[in-house]
Amino acid sequence: MKYAHIIGWGKYVPDRVLTNHDLERMIETTDEWITRRTGIHERHIAGERETTATLAFEAAARALAVADLHPSQVELIIVATSTPEYIFPSTACRVQDYLGAIKAGAFDLSAACSGFVYGLDMAAQAIATGSVRNAIVIGAETMTRVLDWEDRGTCVLFGDGAGAVVLKGSNIPGGVLASTLRSDGSGGDLLSLPAVYHNPVPTLGPEYFHNGHKRNTIAMDGRQVFRFATQVIADSVHETLRKANMTLEDVDLIVPHQANTRIIEAAAKRLKLPQEMFYTNVQWMGNTSAASIPIALCDAVKDGRLQPDDNVIFVGFGGGLTWAASLVKWNVTPPDVSLPRREWRRARYVYARGRSKMKRYGRRFGAWIGGSPTPDASLKDGDKKSRENDL
Ligand code: COA
Question: In this predicted model, what pLDDT tens digit does every residue of 262-306 receive, in sequence order?
Fold first, then answer.
């Protein structure tokens, strides 16, 4: 039995910041209302050329640098996201290509804001069974691209970003000790994001979904989600500790999904724990869905909130409904990687992009020589050009 240890972590958030005061100029809201009800002051917004995959890649590259691991050693890449640019190719496959992780399987995982904890458990299980030795788990989102900017009940809450961890198998006990994954599909209507190909509702017009919300944007019953979240955080933390034969007294830090400071305060009360046991950075990030826990983890490490041998719990909740918790022993000190070595690693990613392009041209050339149509020959010229540029 192998233990899956976290040996690297990295986050990437876009440069552009949208403050509550900026929002005051866009919709009927106030900094005071947003701060009082959510604790959020500002959030990051992806730039025009940034995508979920580019954010995910940056976070993964930084996590690999901390772990001092070569991309070719990675055997599994899981990207938890609700905002992929494509249903397929998966965001994980694009990250695999950008990294040049030539020996990795890659797939996306859909469990909304619980996605990172689900992914962590999947990767830890794959390591425990000996199926893979190393894995990267990424939470990455461009939530601001699926918001109805006229719906003040949701558009003030979310932000963009990505966070990643590298997991490595080891015989030393520790790492991911226990997890609890749960779902309740009966609450699916409380928090939803319809897929682009969902049937339009003729009576409302093609822009609208059946509940009156704009298509391809988030719809939410805030109060119900609030109630659900405060219940399941406590339940899943207790259940996970029970599986590991531990109690709350053994826990050093809880890194919850960063949706709202009031949810976190209510959960702390329910667990009868001091607020300081919960790490929060939602004030500066907003709700970045699947990315929020790994981003908060990186900030917690930077703030010195995690020491070797600490027990940390990650707990997520969100659309589905889904919720999940993982208990992790934080007991691997990362190697001290020199700056030139890090820079050298970055150069490898430029090489990976070049190699990917060459492979693509090689395929087209082979098809041309062989006289067979290229796989995308059926696309119209315009479509073909835009996808070639995009992918
Ligand atoms: N600015 C100003 N007023 C706003 C507003 C905004 N951005 N959004 C809503 N309001 C108004 C509403 O229109 C309503 O006005 P009314 O009383 O005149 O009708 C009033 O504020 C109360 O609305 P309500 O939705 O009941 O507020 P609330 O106290 O439930 O707070 C949330 C709203 C969204 C902050 C809260 O429900 C929440 O945090 N829910 C959990 C959401 C979440 O975290 N989702 C992601 C989970 S992964």
Answer: 999 999 999 999 999 999 999 999 999 999 999 999 999 999 999
C-alpha span between 69 and 252 (Å, rounded): 28
Closest CA to 323 of 244, 250, 387, 259: 259
Q: Which residues are catalytic?
A: 113, 257, 287
Q: Is the CB of 292 under 6 A from ligand 1?
A: no
How far does the centroid of ligand 1 lie from the alpha carbon of residue 115, in Å? 24
Ligand 1 lined by 173 (C-beta under 6 Å): no
Pairing type for strands 76-80 and 42-44 reads unpaired
Q: Is-contact 128 100, C-beta < 8 A?
A: no
Residue 223 tokens, joined? 């109060």
Residue 84's domain spans which residues? 3-330
Say whether both 231 and 379 belong to one domain. Answer: no
Ligand 1 pocket mutation, candidates 37, 154, 323, criterion most atoms within 8 A of CB:
37
The residue-averaged pLDDT of 158-182 equals 97
* H or E element in which residue 107 lies: strand 105-109
Last residue of a domain, one of 310, 330, 350: 330
The model's pLDDT over 74-125, given as tens digits with 9 standing for 90+, comes to 999 999 999 999 999 999 999 999 999 999 999 999 999 999 999 999 999 9
Atom of ligand 1 nearest to the CA of 29: 1
- Residue 207 within a domain: yes
Instruction: Give the number of domains in the chain.
Output: 2
The closest residue, in CA terms, to atom 48 on ligand 1 is 318
CA of 230 relative to ligand 1 center, distance in Å:
16
Look at residue 324 and tell me if it is in a domain. yes
